[in-house]
Specification:
alpha+beta; 8 helices; 4 strands; globular
Amino acid sequence: MSLAPQNPNAGAAMLALYGHPFSSYTQKVLTALYENGTPFELRNLDPAAPGNHAPEWLRRWPLAKFPLLVDGDHTVVESSIVIEHLQLAHPGPVQLIPADPAAALQVRFMDRFFDLHVMAPVQHAVNAALTGDPAKRVDGVAWAADKLEKAYAWLEGEWARRTWAAGDGFTMADCAAAPALFYADWTHPIAASYPLLRAYRARLLARPSFAQAVEGGRPYRHYFPLGAPDRD
């Protein structure tokens, strides 16, 4: 059973999410949508997908980045801002950003940590591999491995005191962590010396909302230029 129905409620405008099922930042927003069972339509930007959504996406956001959310007359971009918008305009049973300002600040910090210090190094390695230059690929992966190793070590120390990214509850920070750690472990495997971080990644993969996002991206694994491992 789908966690996010694809038909709108009677009289309600359908949310439209422009993105790609294999994109980490699209998966971040998909996890938030699935977590709360928010009705939406995914407008798949893969060139081989049915329909041609690219012209409308580019008209709304010429910077050509996804995901992009259309909510009635509103166009919302940047994954964290999209999730913030969903919390304000379409709140669900799971509060992804706490009402308490201090707790919300911690969620936003961890959200930025995973985007900037985990996903960004992965993207650097991916971009280097996509050049087709073997030397750039080696350098890019080495640079990413150094950054990711430092991030893993810091995160391992933090997980001695928490279950999810910002405490006991699943939040926007976990929506960011899920795809970031998913692809990071493919790029530079999380060593056995980080058991708490490895266990956290496993919990994320077992979370139904992220598991559904992972399944949506499964047909596109051949796109991963570093070679998708035969796992997950």
